[in-house]
Amino acid sequence: MSEIRFALAQIDTCVGDLDGNADKVLDYAHRAAKRGAEVVVFPEMTLTGYPIEDLALRATFRKAAWDKANWLAVELAADGLGDLYVVVGTVGSAAAEAGQDPRDAKPTNRLVVLHDGVVWSGYDKHFLPNYGVFDEFRIFSSGGRSVAFEVNGRKLGVAICEDIWQDGGPVAELAKEHIDVLVTINGSPYEEGKTHVRREIAAKRAAEVNAPIIYVNQVGGQDDLVFDGGSFVLDADGALVERSPQFVEDLSLFTLGADGRALPSTIAPDLDPDEEVYTACVLGLKDYMAKNRFTGVCLGLSGGIDSALVAAMAADACGGANVWGISMPSMYSSDGSKDDAADLARNIGAHYDVQPIEPLFVAFQRQLDLHDVAAENLQARIRGVIVMAYSNSKGVLALATGNKSELACGYSTIYGDAVGGYAPIKDLLKTRVWELARWRNRAAAAGMGIGGLRIVGNESGEPGVALPDGVMIPVNSITKAPSAELRPGQKDSDSLPEYALLDRVLAAYIEHAHGRADLLADGFDEKTVDTVMRLVDRAEWKRRQYPLGPKVTALAFGRDRRLPVTSAFRE
């Protein structure tokens, strides 16, 4: 048998942008054909973007998506690409396959093959994930059959994402058909450590069908999800023979040899774990801005580590010239904090304004005469009003700067420092914030300038704008004791356990679902356990109102963890 050349088209799409997504498929199909590919594989639901959530339930959207798939097939043929096999994901329905109006049936998560001017074959996702961030069982109908098609005498089996994560189903059926390669299209969201899990699962399926597996994953941000790409090919024995880089659009080629083995190709290196998480946060912000047509951001700069890291991420996402940093000192702000905020803005080339809040605070106090926590929260809410005023007046995206530790414990002021349209570090524990800040400074010292991440839009890895003195985040912002500076001498440790301890308890309680007895058995002291559990349980109402931000851990607040706001249960 002859060789077959495959192209893995790892692209960034936008939910609902049927025209733009189809144009990108057409563009990458041309690129693949010029490089000699016979089959080009795109990610899950490429034409519609993913996840489409309840858009799938809109009949007009399903009809438009089906029409676009047919238009694309015709356009490919008209452009001289009719001989190319284009594997692409979209939304489908049983009615559409039967030639009926696709508005008349429940939708499916569909893979289609475009060839010779027609939508040539279709496969509906069998296993519908219904956990974590996924609600597909609620939206889609499950497919009931396996699908394979032939190219140059070779049999290609197909699957969609979750189909390879579960035993049985279509992959088990394909194993009986003696396929030559398993093609799987994916929309697998990023979380730290998931890369190796994907490969382990794929290796299991490759062994099951005794054939190489092609795994093409989506890249880019979609609301609170980040897709990291990292597409790959494994041989039947599980050996890695091709891997695309993470967080960039990419077109990689590999060849299925005449002997049925996947020939070695290019293997992109793994990223440093800190670089991987930092890049995921930046890509989430960058794509949220681009897809919602924001050209700039604004945020409060306190001189602390959280706002410093968010500002650094923002500069890497959209350039320092598009960042508005606002220092809003009060009578309790230290000179050191004000200097750190100014230094950070200078380092990243951001606009920097100073808006003292004391006159506004005094005016409110004349009217309200607040004390203690109410007076502290008033300061935060005045700052929130200023940030949102900048957002309104300049048409830029307001960024919230809270971290996961604070969000877990409710250590923020609702309608104060919690305001914003996007929260880039909401899934980072405080200790992780410090780690990423140190990594970004190391990267700066090694020559990575502002915007120097290898990310969608910077596929070539340009080094970015040079940083003065090779420093991005002021060292003092990293090393000083964290404080909200809402009263004299305040430290975070006045209200919370030390972060090194707090984050260990939070990881056990939230991410690993350890109960009180489990936490005590883990070796945490009773007072700390009871304090942390009480703070977390009482703060659900705040978390429900917090801006969305990128999921980078196995269990992020939001769709991953759905607890009632009103609940009397306590351990």
UniProtKB/TrEMBL annotation:
Coiled coil segments of this chain: none
Catalytic residues in the record: 44, 125, 161
Sorted UniProt keywords: ATP-binding, Ligase, NAD, Nucleotide-binding
Primary enzyme class: ligase
Binding of L-glutamine, residues: 131, 188, 194
Reaction equations catalysed: deamido-NAD(+) + L-glutamine + ATP + H2O = L-glutamate + AMP + diphosphate + NAD(+) + H(+)
Function in brief: Catalyzes the ATP-dependent amidation of deamido-NAD to form NAD. Uses L-glutamine as a nitrogen source.
Name of the featured protein: Glutamine-dependent NAD(+) synthetase
UniProt organism field: Bifidobacterium avesanii
